[in-house]
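Bench notes, bay 3.
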Amino acid sequence: MSVNCLFCRIVKREVPASLVYEDEEVLAFNDISPQAPVHVLVVPKRHMATLNDLTPAEDHLVGRLIRQAAAIAAERGISAGGYRMVLNCNADAGQTVFHIHLHLLGGRPMHWPPG
């Protein structure tokens, strides 16, 4: 874990968060600045700064993030209407916290192309 990483600090319970899900590898919590009625961040508990840091050994972890986000979408009742999952990589893509995280967004119509 990174000492200065906000999401690592949330994982260690040093910073409060509205938790949605937790298992041995994944933590999910509500975004503090939601961009949709449902905006949940799904993060690996182990620190990895960007998608560029992933190796084939982490393939299962990416699958877990996606599957858990889909399960949360079902729990929140947005599966039938639809939802969006977003993974940003580096500053030009909008990544502001350098710890891999998946945004689950839903509960309203999404437009294309995104910002």
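Next record in the batch:
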Amino acid sequence: MSEILNLSATALSTSIHRREVSCTEVLEACLHQIDRLNPIVNAIVAMPDREALHGLARERDAQMARGESLGALHGFPQAPKDIAPAAGMVTTNGSPIFRGQVTPTDSASNARLSTAGAIFVGRTNSPEFGLGAHTYNPVYGITRNAFDPTRSAGGSSGGAGVALALRMLPVADGSDMMGSLRTPAAFNNVFGFRTSPGCVPAGPGDEVFFQSFSVVGPMARSVSDLAMLLSVQAGFDARVPLTRRQDNPSVFAQALDADLRGTRIGWLGDLGGHLTMEPGLLELDRQSLAHFEAIGCRVDAVLPRFDLTRLWQAWIDLLSFTVSGNYAAHYHDPARRALLKPEAVWEIERGLALTGPEVFEAARVRSAWYQELGRLFQEFDFLVMPTTQVFPFKAELHWPDRVADRTMDTYHRWMESVVPATMAGLPTLGAPAGFSASGLPAGIQIIGPAQADLAVLKIGHAYDLASGHARVKSPLLSENAEQP
């Protein structure tokens, strides 16, 4: 079992297709790991009947014996994030409003995972409606960090990040609005990729025909594995009009090796002191720049010429506008309003109070920010900055209300570092950056120009090989580890 669990996802797919390992053996190995470690961290929830899962694995083995492969994920245990619908499974969105809700259809991305041969063994836990970068909710409880279960797993794809780090899953899916793929990647020493809008279909369902902040993307323990999953997720879907027809998803499954000598990296750091950082974190993140230099990149510090306070105000206005549009119906129903967490109520009330001109002005600021980053990309090929402003914090906290010597004025101010890439709609890789003296993981963001998803993966792959950070395993993976 340990040999199966330690395979990369790409190697696992090859082994299954060569019939060196059976889909049943892979399922049993992952279920054993879930049984061993999930009670500690609570990453995977709503698991279906085990006999049904074994039946699916036997079916995948029979297909393989006939030479019938469903795709790259043939026989892969998967657990879709508990936000996007998965047919026949409970989809709660982390909210008691939807406790026990079984959805009849798949989201477009989940359908692609299933069509490619994945076996859904449960759901990965997420905060209520995906709000806040700390995975806890009143339905399933707290998901705990893979390296220190007393700490937060990040979010909102927190369950996915932990399940990956602890080898419960070979790869994982997630979504990202305000760092929901990037923050749990940083907190759990894995990779999370915020794709360009339209690269992976989000929906179909109740989504409106409107360019959203939220995107769907992959998580993995290496960039090669990340790219393999993205090759399954990506591509045009006629039901989702903002997906890109011209992209060929198979490009992501090709070799990522590239000569990066002379590549120009712009280091944004803490944006000239605008971001309040936990002591020691910025220095740790800055050390990761040496790995870019080792692969031939030139790294220079740079600051955008922009009013970052204005950018933050535009962000929270557009976020509240989006959240209120999605969830105001719950707010207007007194019974359901009582079940909403305070942060959701705050967002909805802010959104309902906004005027049309205020929303338009926020969009104007967003557009100006995109143009400013476009100016920087005339000088640099990629931009790099910290993923988070804090190390993983105590799991029982709702959110950090103070960072260093500064009080946080909103529930999400402590995660402002992920806003620049989100507001510009740029492809961004969350990558490991090392560990604190006490062993807590940290991460950086590699931001690319518009729609340069493959280029970001290529430099991320080279960084992955040079740094080796992602190959550091959680102490919980040791067979002799003392279980807290």
